[in-house]
Write a structure and sequence with these properties.
By secondary structure, the protein is of the alpha+beta class. It is 41% helix and 28% strand. It starts with a helix and ends with a strand.
């Protein structure tokens, strides 16, 4: 084989390698983007399920219900705050929740995890706890929330 032929193969191999690396790089980025969108969708669906249950039982005065929700991967606990309480006592380890309450943001449910912090307003709630704050841990990928309908809102039972 001539030197000219060898050089053309080298150029071809380099070109194929560059194209292969680009496909892998951009493909990996697209896959990561899809994963992130999936996580966001799961969190939104989780929040919607909880909010729907809270709002559904709110008008059923005296009706108590325990609901079990499947938590998205990475969620460690869900915390609730009674924003209308005269006194709210939040453990100092929940600094982001404290900041949210002190800023006046009307968010009363917080989904927490290793790399997750999302806050939502799930409607009028009270907390069966003098601290007006409670966190419910995720156990085996599920969270159980006890709720009591109060006619105009829902009491979260701790």
């Amino acid at each position: 084989m001539s030197k000219k032929g060898i050089h053309s193969y080298v150029v071809l191999y380099v070109l194929v390698a560059v194209i292969g690396v680009m496909v892998l790089y951009f493909g990996y980025g697209a896959i990561q983007d899809f994963k992130e969108r999936g996580k966001t969708g799961q969190l939104l669906e989780f929040k919607t399920w909880i909010e729907g249950s809270i709002n559904n039982i709110a008008s059923q005065n005296g009706n108590m219900r325990q609901e079990t929700f499947i938590a998205p991967a990475g969620v460690k606990e869900v915390c609730f705050v009674d924003l209308d309480a005269d006194y709210i006592d939040i453990n100092n380890s929940y600094t982001l929740i404290i900041d949210s309450v002190e800023s006046g943001a009307r968010k009363n449910m917080f989904i927490l995890g290793k790399e997750i912090f999302d806050s939502y307003d799930v409607g009028p709630i009270t907390i069966d706890n003098p601290r007006a704050f409670t966190c419910i841990p995720v156990e085996n990928g599920k969270i159980k929330i006890r709720m009591l309908g109060e006619g105009i809102g829902t009491k979260i039972m701790s």
